[in-house]
Amino acid sequence: MSFVGESDSGVAGPAKISVASPGDYIALLKPRVMSLVIFTALTGLLLAPHPVHPIVGFAALLAIAVGAGASGALNMWYDADIDAIMRRTCKRPIPSGKVTGSEALGFGLTLSAFAVFTLGIVANWAAAALLAFTIFFYVVIYSMWLKRATPQNIVIGGAAGAFPPVVGYVAATGHLSVSSFVLFAIIFVWTPPHFWALALVRAADYGRAGIPMLPNVKGPNRTRLEILLYSLVLVPLGVAPYLLGFASPVYGVASVALGAVFLGLAVRVFLVRTGDKADQYAMALFGFSILYLFLLFAELLTERVITLFLGM
Questions:
Q1: Does domain 20-174 have CATH number 3.30.300.30?
Q2: What does the pLDDT read at residue 310?
Q3: How would you label 219-239 residue by residue, b for 16+ Cβ within 10 Å and e otherwise?
Q4: Is the pLDDT of residue 294 over 70?
Q5: Alpha carbon distance 141, 160 (integer Å)
Q6: pLDDT tens for residues 157-182?
Q7: What is the tens place of the pLDDT at every residue in 263-292?
Q8: DSSP letter for each residue of the chain
Q9: What is the pLDDT of residue 4?
Q10: Which of 77, 85, 145, 245 is most enclosed, with most CB atoms within 10 A?
Q11: How far apart are CA 179 and CA 41, in angstroms?
C-alpha cells in the first residue's frame, strides 16, 4: 500500500491512500500481450535442438513474461498523457487515477531488473542481455521516440514484439539460429498489417492523441496498400519454417491455407475503401491476423512437443 498526495498550493497535505488494487497492477502488465509473449517465447524455447530442464525452462519463461509485463508498465507510465485522451485506453490504471505515474515507473523498473537478472542466473547472460535490450527497445526506442515521431512507428517498433521467441531460443541454447531469426521475421512482418487494420478503424482516436499513425499521416488508401504489400511478404515467410526443414508438411499445408485467407482478407481491405463495410473488413483482418499467428506458432509448438515426447 502506498501513500501519495500534496495540496493544491504545493504544501504537503494529508496523505491519500492509494486506491490501486492488485488487479490494477496486473492491468499495468498488459496481460493479453504478456500471454502472446509467453506463447511465442515457449515456441522458441522448445525449438532448441536439445530440450532444457523443465525447471530451467519454466523459470526462463517466467522471467521473459515478467520482462514483457515490465515493458507494459513502463509504456503505460510514459504514455499516460495520450492514454487519457484515447477512448481505447482512457480507463487504464494511470489515467483513471488508480495508480500514480511514479508508482507505475517504480513497479516497471523493479520488474525489469528482476526479470533480467533472473533470466541471467537461471539460463544464461546472453538471453538476459537480449531481454534487457528488448525492454529498452520497447520503452525507449518505440514508446519514447518512434511512436510520437513517425508513421513508421509500428514497423520499426514491431521488433520489440518479435524478440520473445529469439529470447526463448537463446535462453535454451546460448546462441542464435536460423530458426529463431525466421520466427522473429514472421512476427516482425505480421505486426504492420495486424496493427494498421485496427488503425484504419481507430484513426480518429489516434488523431485526437496526436499519434502519427499511417492512416492519419499518409491517408487510409496508402495504409490499405501498405497492408497488402506486407501481407504479400508475410504469406511466403509464414511457410519458411517448412521450407527450411524445421516444420513438418502438415505445417506447410496449414501455413499456405492460413496465408491464403490472410491475403484474401488483405485484398478485400484494399479494394473496399468506403462505407461501413470498409471498417468491417478491416476489423475482420485484424481479428484473423491474431488467429493466423496463434495457429502458426501452435502448430510449431505441437510438432516440437510430439517430437520431444517420441524421443523420450
A1: no
A2: 80
A3: ebeebbebbbebbbebbebbb
A4: yes
A5: 9
A6: 999 999 999 999 999 999 999 999 99
A7: 999 999 999 998 889 999 999 999 999 999
A8: --EE---TTSS----EE----HHHHHHHT-HHHHHHHHHHHHHHHHTSSSPPPHHHHHHHHHHHHHHHHHHHHHHHHHTHHHHTTSTTTTTSTTTTTSS-HHHHHHHHHHHHHHHHHHHHHHT-HHHHHHHHHHHHIIIIIIIIIIHHH-TTHHHHHTHHHHSHHHHHHHHHHSS--HHHHHHHHHHHHHHHHHHHHHHHHSHHHHHHHT---HHHHT-HHHHHHHHHHHHHHHHHHHHHHHHTTSS-HHHHHHHHHHHHHHHHHHHHHHH--SSHHHHHHHHHHHHHHHHHHHHHHHHHHHHHHHHHHHT-
A9: 38
A10: 77
A11: 13
This prediction's pTM? 0.91
> How far is C-alpha 61 from the geometric centre of its chain's CA atoms?
15
| Ranges of each domain in the chain | 20-174, 177-312
Q: Cell numbers 509500428 correspond to what residue?
A: 154
Grid cell, residue 218, equals 499518409
